[in-house]
């Protein structure tokens, strides 16, 4: 057993007690099974009724590289990542020295003293350290040698729970539920948790101020809620939206969306009597094929989906333009990660805005939905299929790695009250009633033509679909006027769509003259950032964009009501700002725009936002660290 | 045999469709292009088979060949996709509605270069479709560059010689798990029609590698895909007889006279040896023959390989053709509120 002597410098017990307000980071090595233990710990906090924000900051690696899991615990409901750490759980010798070095004064370290030397701690007498000889404990107490590495993680969870004064019964209940299909796993995990709890109780007197207490009754922040990743909720939305064809190519961080959806298909879409499948899932050879399958299926009348990330979206450009121009429905999820190129494949970003909105060569614009929460992932996933068929065009849903792969507290999504909106499809009886069928005729004046589906036997029904120039009657044409007329109609169609998309979400404050605009996963940090700004004397209005073509009317109104509008984005170049400027054009709006940009691959935190705004307002900022953010840009 | 050398436009087929239902717009390809012959063979074969034109889907890629679906079966549904991506569009359409009969048309630029990946993987999946490659060894619409099926030593019109290895699409089809590989000269009406019918009746990806000369850019001395060269080097491996389910039974075959291969729709093939003794169900034998003839610089034509028992993709996907995915409604697709609540409870 390694020495348990800690720092020479005595740590004064802190006078104040901090309840349900801390940020914990587990520093482990990839592939050691820590994710499962960290999820158990997160769920325990969730079941205690505490607002919790777990985030996995992992490398592009199967085994060995350092990985970090952060858990934000906040009685105030701030669940975005916090820049400053309060607790470190040190498990990884490779990152140990830097993990300790990065801690702010007075913070807490629980570490595996069997593996990690106390060297780095010697120069940090300000820290509160809890050495736990985890490897020795598992060797002595866990009978199954092959499980020891895995269960070491559960030991630190137990020790952590004890040190934070948590009720172990809730932890035990989560372990029981987590392994309910494997009774042996329940017992061994409970044993490991108890080993950690007992060691901490007997050997580690409480020296730090942090406590975690259950929030019950009215204070329970999680009543009726679930703790879920966005990809699961996106998949559920697609299932509820009637998706029947899934074509995909594995890519982080999108794969789990497809795999979860396939699991749902197998559960809900197999006829128990006949074995018939009411779905088709194809793992394609590449993303070119994935979107091809989606468009082929959409053209023939099925609700089809592909899900990808930036590199896949780049490959899909040509077919996306085809879908726009030949007017074929399809749904494309992009779970954004850091680009360009391979970039940081396991880190988060909002860097594909322009890529999605203008996906293709030539004059193109797509419908893009941008959910800001897991329940919106579900809702937008579902309505994406309606919109794709109503407007006969590819619809993109942009989430990101943070929203897609991390656990978020979510509402249970509402059950759909309306049927599928299948758009303008002519059946044989409809064709009997009309004189001629022009596939690309703007019959209704909304830019949206009528279509028929292959297999329709009516003599007027057949038409020829092509990505080359075509007339209103779907015949080949290179005639200049015809071409321009068609492009104009497509623009009109997107104008019609602009009014049919989910509306932006406004949170206005009386007397506020500063506007904030954000979208997507950034929403998670906005309430905290706005509270920080209010504390610094800045009252803010907040508009969240959820779809493009942008809601120009609402945006103009928002700009009119604010002297200055900060656009907060998780990309370097202000991609949404570029779209906004293109849409609003007029100087009375665009001159008010200022950008706050965060693009280091970590989920955005509230302080980056509030400091970015404060800096541009020429007021003192709170945090000194840049942490890879661009800060404010005018 | 339901083949007849000439069709009169007023003629109806046994399913009650007019010959004109199977025709298309006038071709815009060059006069004398091999592809126009292929178009005519498709019209005649589909008319003979009596397939409902509205159930025919005609995907294609980009290039001269890919324009041809506009020239046949106007009462069917054409979809001219992007370059090399005909197979993925076909796959999507077939999954959406497995009653649709797919005839994809592609060229050698489409299949042997830009879309090689999709070619390979549609073969692996064995999607039930006819996959026609109108193969002329040259890019026509971009005015005469070599394609990847041009043989070493082949000359362009400019005199430029190809020194790269050619891709043999029949060998590729077999190696990549395909269940049907045939080769034919575009102007060989008898063999073309029999092979198209066999391809339609086959349940799986049926590759027809049609050597279809380009009259404008690849019909000169030194070309290995000119009309003269192909006629001179076309070696019939076998004679393919297509017998539809409704055709009168033919006389009993004598042992060794021919090979009878039943197909899933009740039709069957009668394969008679011409150049070599070969059972087209022999995969290794097929590859060996292709390689032998490639070495000799000869074009081996006929039904080279067929595996009628390999399961096709929509069957593997357990789709019900009577209830196409495209036709399913909320009642078929939406889980109940209770099912969703129960599913989500694992996240509580």
Can you walk me through this structure?
The complex is a heterodimer of chains A (634) and B (348). Chain A is an alpha/beta fold. Chain A has 21 helices and 25 strands. In chain A, strands 10, 11, 12, 13, 14, 15, 16 and 22 form an eight-stranded mixed sheet that branches. In chain A, a hairpin with an 8-residue loop joins strand 3 (52-57) and strand 4 (66-74). In chain A, helix 4 (134-141) crosses helix 7. The longest helix of chain A has 21 residues, at 183-203. The relative contact order of chain A is 0.09. In chain B, helix 4 (108-114) packs across helix 5. Chain B starts with 33 loop residues before the first helix and ends with a helix. At the A-B interface, strand 9, helix 8, helix 9, helix 10 and helix 11 of A face strand 2, helix 3, helix 5, helix 11 and helix 12 of B. Strand 18 (464-466) of chain A pairs parallel with strand 2 (77-80) of chain B.
Structural class call of chain B reads alpha/beta
**Annotation, overall tally of beta strands of chain B:** 13
Output the structural class of chain A. Answer: alpha/beta
Main β-sheet description of chain A: 8 strands, mixed
How do the strands and helices of this protein lay out in sequence?
The complex is a heterodimer of chains A (634) and B (348).
Chain A: E1 18-19, E2 21-29, H1 34-47, E3 52-57, E4 66-74, E5 87-90, H2 93-101, E6 108-112, H3 119-122, E7 128-132, H4 134-141, H5 148-163, H6 168-178, H7 183-203, E8 210-211, E9 225-229, H8 230-240, E10 245-248, H9 255-268, E11 280-283, H10 287-299, E12 304-308, H11 310-326, E13 330-338, E14 344-348, H12 353-357, E15 367-369, H13 374-391, E16 394-400, H14 401-405, E17 407-411, H15 428-433, E18 464-466, H16 480-500, E19 505-507, E20 514-519, H17 523-535, E21 540-545, E22 547-548, H18 552-560, E23 564-569, H19 575-584, H20 587-590, E24 593-598, H21 606-616, E25 629-633
Parallel strand pairs in A: 1-8, 2-5, 5-6, 6-7, 10-11, 10-12, 12-13, 13-16, 15-16, 20-21, 20-23, 23-24
Antiparallel strand pairs in A: 2-4, 3-4, 9-17, 13-14, 15-22, 19-21, 24-25
Helix pairs in contact in A: 1-5, 1-6, 4-5, 4-7, 5-7, 6-7, 8-9, 8-13, 10-11, 17-21
Chain B: H1 34-49, E1 56-60, H2 64-67, E2 77-80, H3 86-96, E3 101-107, H4 108-114, H5 116-125, E4 129-135, E5 138-139, E6 145-146, H6 169-175, E7 180-185, H7 189-201, E8 205-211, H8 227-233, E9 234-236, E10 238-243, E11 259-262, E12 268-273, H9 283-296, E13 299-306, H10 313-316, H11 330-333, H12 337-344
Parallel strand pairs in B: 1-2, 1-3, 3-4, 4-8, 7-8, 9-13
Antiparallel strand pairs in B: 5-6, 7-13, 10-12, 11-12
Helix pairs in contact in B: 1-7, 4-5, 6-9
